[in-house]
């Protein structure tokens, strides 16, 4: 019987490690530049945490959670996202008693039982930023700028920021009533999924991927016409900052998108997404917004917050397009020319490694086959170990990436070898 990775999951293979690291490094270092610190929470939590925060009527909670009863009878879910987990941790560990705002970032796998397709998986990774404890639009701008800097470091082109404001919960209530009035005129034209949304959560009709609904939504009332003056000032303040950014960075583009409401229940005021020109779900690189009510909903003190989550796979897939050959991951392959010297070879390999030279000893085969091995794995060099080399206390080296140039290096000059291989 042959097993396969479960549907919607995949393996990260050794030749992809560099790309994954590159994305992770860009995220972590940018976050650190803005004074953010790493937080890690469990991969599973009590199911109630997500029901309460993401929202019971959302696709995520209704259809997509990997939930089960554990052996102790607890209802557990694999995390479908991590804002809820970070907020739970913030409250549980008393982070509200530290200097606020808490600037946090996380990275790790998330799980959603979605229909697998390009850019959509059942296990995927997110990097996320949460800035907890500051209500000003300055930090909305800060998190939007962090995301922009990450996408720039990764050389994404043609990225656009979509932005909207949902106002506060009172505004949302008024707006939802207006939306209902509007969509009730078209109820019979809406597809079944959106008729259901009309009953349970009308705001989400604007999130619909159905062509008909998108068309009907074009004339729907706009959130910005319904938000309170306080929310409007917040929004305008943020827009001023974005204008300023676009005046100094010609690549930065944004647009106010009245249909952007984001799927989860906990957002208020600012919501945003960065999209690339790839079509479909693959196009949305990251999304986020303000979620001021969330910490209180979870039993903490009233603490405003804003953040985003970025899909790592989408960034990795984009970068992978530019990778063709496998990069060399080994500096030296030891070619043992005399079988009696195997023991000495392991010692020499260890000396090389202690000088940060990545080393493999070729398999016990003919010299020709050992050389073929070194070439096949793209090693930077072949290091010959024979009686004469040992007697002279030197290494005889072929630089495979430099037209097989031949050099000799004294055994006590391995730093020099490291420099040559990594220059
Ligand atoms: P969300 O948590 O739904 O706001 O998504 C934030 C980001 O995570 C999206 O913009 C995607 O880049 C990524 N993402 C969400 N769901 C998936 C999925 N099923 N597979 C891969 N990436 C995803």
Keywords:
Rossmann fold, binds adenosine monophosphate, 15 helices, 2 domains, 8-stranded mixed β-sheet, 423 residues, 5-stranded mixed β-sheet, BirA Bifunctional Protein, domain 2, elongated, alpha+beta
Any overview of this molecule?
- This protein has 423 residues and is an alpha+beta fold.
- It is built from 15 helices and 16 strands.
- It has helices at residues 17-33, 47-53, 59-64, 83-92, 137-153, 169-184, 192-200, 211-217, 229-248, 294-297, 312-320, 342-354, 367-376, 387-391, 414-421; strands at 37-38, 44-46, 67-69, 75-78, 102-111, 123-132, 160-165, 254-256, 268-275, 284-290, 305-311, 332-336, 359-361, 381-385, 394-399, 405-410.
- The strands form three sheets. It has an eight-stranded mixed β-sheet with strand order 1-5-6-11-10-9-7-8. The protein has a five-stranded mixed β-sheet with strand order 13-12-14-15-16, with helices on both faces. Strands 2-4-3 form a three-stranded antiparallel β-sheet.
- 34% of the residues are buried.
- The mean pLDDT is 92.
- It binds adenosine monophosphate.
- Adenosine monophosphate is lined by residues 81, 112, 114, 119-121, 124, 126, 284-287, 309, 311, 313-314.
How would the blueprint of this fold be written?
Blueprint lengths: L16 H17 L3 E2 L5 E3 H7 L5 H6 L2 E3 L5 E4 L4 H10 L9 E10 L11 E10 L4 H17 L6 E6 L3 H16 L7 H9 L10 H7 L11 H20 L5 E3 L11 E8 L8 E7 L3 H4 L7 E7 H9 L11 E5 L5 H13 L4 E3 L5 H10 L4 E5 L1 H5 L2 E6 L5 E6 L3 H8 L2
Parallel strand pairs: 1-5, 7-8, 12-13, 12-14
Antiparallel strand pairs: 2-4, 3-4, 5-6, 6-11, 7-9, 9-10, 10-11, 14-15, 15-16
Helix pairs in contact: 1-5, 1-11, 5-9
Bound molecules: adenosine monophosphate.
